[in-house]
Amino acid sequence: MFGLTLEKILLIGIIAVFLLGPERLPHYAAQLARLVKQLRDLANGAKDRMRDEMGPDFDDVDWKKLDPRQYDPRRIIREALTDEDELKGQSATVSRAVPNPDGAYLQRKRAKEAATLPAPFDSEAT
């Protein structure tokens, strides 16, 4: 969790002992334990509330599929392109996109030039 290894946690504990001192350390350790318990209760309460609001559908949801860490755009595109079950029996037509004569570089260059031009002046306004 957060890239903390046992050695790092032990080092943080030793530094805490030296900074806080042995008389204040139990008080702060108890506060940390209460905070962790409150966060755990908050997460469990949110999960229970979600289960109550969604009803029986809550257990049917594949939560791992909705995990943003599982998002891989290459895989999604590959699956979309190889999904030929719906396209069987239909004639395949290949269409090619017409490339834009102005590349991205020229479009950005023109946008910068337009931004540096002075605003138009209307002598008849107000």
TrEMBL record:
Keywords: Membrane, Protein transport, Translocation, Transmembrane, Transmembrane helix, Transport. It holds the Pfam family TatA_B_E. The keyword Membrane applies. Residues 86-126 are annotated as: Disordered. It is found in: Membrane. Signal peptide: none annotated. It is a single-pass membrane protein. This is Sec-independent protein translocase TatB. It comes from Cryobacterium sinapicolor.
